[in-house]
Write a structure and sequence with these properties.
The complex is a heterodimer of chains A (183) and B (536). Chain A has 2 domains: 85 residues, Glycoprotein, Type 4 Pilin (2-Layer Sandwich), CATH 3.30.700; 74 residues, RNA polymerase II/Efflux pump adaptor protein, barrel-sandwich hybrid domain (OB fold (Dihydrolipoamide Acetyltransferase, E2P)), CATH 2.40.50. Chain A has 2 helices and 16 strands. The longest helix of chain A has 16 residues. Chain A is elongated. With 536 residues, chain B is an alpha/beta fold. In chain B, a hairpin with a 7-residue loop joins β9 and β10. In chain B, α16 packs antiparallel against α17. Classes of the chains: A mainly beta (183), B alpha/beta (536). At the A-B interface, β13 of A face loops of B.
Chain lengths: 183, 536
């Protein structure tokens, strides 16, 4: 639980400590009592920080907030700290072998061996219990093997598709990440 | 604090456009049928109302409600598949609205149809709306104007446990619970109908049109020979000055309604049950994108997280056990600021998904978190392997714990509701507080194909025992009528006609309907669950 607020070059770690009434926030480790009171105009607010009152205008689009304060506009991106932590720790590859989640038949094979696919791409459509289920790619990869053909029946746990990592791409990605950090 | 669902829908994709077109057509059809039921009547029926100086039922309700507040109407298409479609909305309008700042149930007879006579499904709808009042401790305002039971169908509405007597029994139970009722008598309340104002705490009766009697003038003449006009028999002055059956007389419908609003403003506002709440926030993703998410073919699977993202506050969702029993999505979210636990089908129910659902319900029950079921379920998994693993006992756990949960439950029929999946996911029999359905939804004991094949198979095996076989034509002759009756009886309009739900809604209204329903449900204290949480 917590947010990282990116403001210009710097990121501030903020945790709500007590979130009803005037909230107590922990900003970079120090406690601040804060309250936002709506003004009359659209987007107009009075921000009370430790008893001090500031006149601000706010506009938000999702997690990006634009704040007009003392004649200057600031952009703040709120990043859910858990989201950030999960992304950082995301495993680089999913399972190489995709198995049938239930017994059924193959309605459609949407990929060929050797094809490069993005995460989430449709690989197979299977039908079971009156329902067509899309088997999608757990990660970006290359198709190493298609183990079933259209119209074929299979049992639960049967091998459907084998993936292999695309080495070049993962190297390229690493390069990109390094580039980001250098900026 | 929760994380936002990350949508993977491509609003420019071919599927999205095709689905959107199909769903806009379905919703257009629904809106057309709803508008017809609400407002369209033969001109002579409107003329008759005008001749009697009566306002149309929808106008009466508009005048009663606080201006600018929402009205959540129940079962606007009740009885659409019965009585040649005559009984629009089942001849009675029911719903939750705000009157003098209080959440109330409004139950209004519709005298534009056969003088407001009650059909069997009118009775069912009246009983259901008073059940809602009891379960959610909602005061009731009755707008009475009915000729009484539709006599040719009396046997279907009189004697059974849930027949007309149940209306008056429910009124008595409401009174026992301390939930107030008001009757505004705009027309005749004859026979059983006379008990509605008589069993209400407050009754206003209109001079002229209003009348309350156990037997109307024709029955009195037949029974005793006495000749008496309606006003002398049971008009406003008799009842407010002599008999004491009603409390206030009014000279116009407007006066009666304003008096009614003043009476409601005397009622104590109930304290709401305490659950987790926060400031409401609109969904991050546009609910209108739901039209492009629900497929045009019931067989095509879709990700329920995409639906959840377009119903809940800020599209925030804390998903529980994301890697276990993945065909049932479970997690916490807020709807109009009310914390809820959501169970949504992402495929068939397996052993693990059943256990996950049961476990999650236990958590919500202990944590005082109302439950929202989003049904798209073709059933529990069948086959040797699953029977051997005990799919019956795992399904039983799900049904057991769901049935016994003490927090309020809400169900939305999103797409399909087949077999025991309907039971596990809080179908009508499980006393959820409200069930709403989308126009595309289908509901039946099993799929049409499966039922037709099962019946054909039974016949083939019967004949095989005596050494006979069936030709392909004969097999088709068995299958065809089954498939036909399924097509008719498993669609959303038939279901809502029978009051298997509390009404069809436009998918984009789901969030608002649930918001009003959840708020209403919190008038009833939530009982303490009596067991700890079993990790299943």
């Amino acid at each position: 639980m917590g947010y990282d607020f990116a403001l210009g070059e710097k990121t501030y770690v903020v945790h709500p400590v007590h979130d009803t009434g005037p909230a107590t926030l922990s900003i970079e480790g120090s406690a601040v009592r804060a309250r936002l009171l709506p003004g009359l105009a659209l987007g107009e607010y009075f921000l009370e920080i430790d008893g001090r009152r500031e006149h601000v205008f706010l506009a938000s689009r999702g997690d990006t907030h634009f704040i007009h304060w003392r004649g200057r506009a600031h952009r703040v991106d709120a990043i859910n700290a858990l989201d950030r932590a999960r992304r950082a720790a995301e495993p680089s590859g999913g399972a190489d072998l995709l198995r049938a989640p239930m017994p059924g038949t193959v309605v459609q094979v949407a990929v060929q061996v050797g094809q490069e696919i993005e995460a989430g791409a449709l690989l197979l459509t299977i039908e079971s219990m009156k329902l067509q289920t899309a088997i999608t790619a757990p990660r970006a990869a290359r198709i190493a093997e298609v183990c079933v053909s259209e119209g074929a029946s299979f049992d639960q746990g049967a091998a459907l598709i084998r993936l292999e990592s695309n080495e070049d791409e993962s190297l390229a990605e690493q390069g990109e990440n390094n580039g980001d950090q250098a900026e | 604090m929760m994380r936002r669902i990350e949508s993977r829908i491509d609003p420019h994709g071919a599927d999205f456009k095709r689905f959107r077109e199909a769903n806009l057509e379905r919703v257009g059809e629904f809106r057309r049928r709803q508008n017809e039921a609400r407002f369209e009547r033969p001109q002579r029926d409107f003329d008759r109302l005008e001749h009697h100086g009566k306002n149309f039922v929808r106008d009466r309700i508009d005048q009663l409600l606080d201006p600018g507040t929402p009205f959540l109407e129940f079962s606007s298409l009740a009885a659409n598949s019965e009585y040649d479609g005559v009984s629009k909305s089942g001849s009675v309008v029911t719903g939750i609205g705000i009157v003098s700042g209080r959440e109330v149930i409004i139950r209004a007879d519709d005298p534009s149809i056969k003088g407001g006579a009650w059909y069997p499904l009118t009775v069912k709808k009246n009983v259901r709306c008073l059940d809602i009042a009891i379960e959610n401790r909602l005061p009731v305002v009755h707008l009475c104007d009915s000729a009484g039971g539709f006599l040719p169908l009396q046997s279907e509405m009189f004697a059974d446990r849930t027949s007309a007597g149940r209306i008056f029994r429910n009124q008595a139970i409401l009174s026992k619970m301390g939930v107030p009722q008001l009757a505004l008598v705009f027309g005749h309340c004859t026979a059983g109908g006379a008990y509605i104002p008589s069993l209400s705490d407050y009754a206003v009766i209109l001079r002229g049109n209003g009348g309350i009697f156990l037997g109307g003038p024709p029955l009195v003449k037949a029974a005793t020979g006495e000749i008496v006009d309606a006003d002398t028999l049971g008009g406003a002055d008799v009842h407010t000055q002599v008999s004491g059956v009603a409390d206030y007389a009014a000279n116009s419908e407007e006066e009666a309604i304003l008096l009614g609003r003043e009476i409601v403003s005397q009622w104590m506002r109930p304290e709401k049950a305490r659950i987790e709440r926060r400031e409401p926030e609109a969904p991050f993703y546009d609910p209108r994108e739901l039209y492009g998410i629900i497929p045009d073919d019931i067989k095509i699977q879709f990700d329920m997280r995409e639906v959840i993202a377009r119903i809940v506050d800020g599209s925030y969702f804390h998903e529980y056990q994301p890697d276990y029993g993945i065909t049932l999505v479970c997690g916490y979210a807020y709807i109009w600021g009310h914390k809820v636990g959501i169970l949504a089908n992402n495929g068939v129910l397996f052993n693990d998904s059943s256990l996950k659902g049961a476990h999650f319900i236990e958590l919500c029950d202990k944590n005082r978190t109302p439950l929202v079921f989003l049904q798209n379920i073709t059933g529990f998994m069948v086959g040797r392997e699953y029977e051997a693993r005990g799919i019956c006992k795992d399904g039983a756990k799900f049904i057991m714990i769901q049935s016994a949960a003490s927090v309020p439950k809400f169900t939305v029929m999103i797409n399909s509701s087949f077999g025991a999946g309907n039971y596990g996911m809080c179908g009508r029999a499980y006393d959820g507080r409200f069930i709403f359905a989308w126009p595309n939804h289908q509901i039946a004991i099993m799929g049409a194909e499966q039922a037709a094949n099962t019946l054909a198979d039974v016949k083939i095996r019967q004949l095989a025992r005596v050494g006979e076989t069936l030709s392909q034509d004969e097999i088709e002759a068995i299958r065809e009528p089954v498939i036909e009756s399924y097509a008719r009886e498993s669609n959303a309009y038939y279901a809502t006609s029978q009051l298997w739900d509390d009404g069809i809604i436009d998918p984009v209204d789901t969030r608002n309907a649930l918001g009003i329903a959840i708020s209403a449900s919190l008038n009833t204290p939530i009982e303490e669950p009596s067991y700890g949480i079993l990790r299943l």
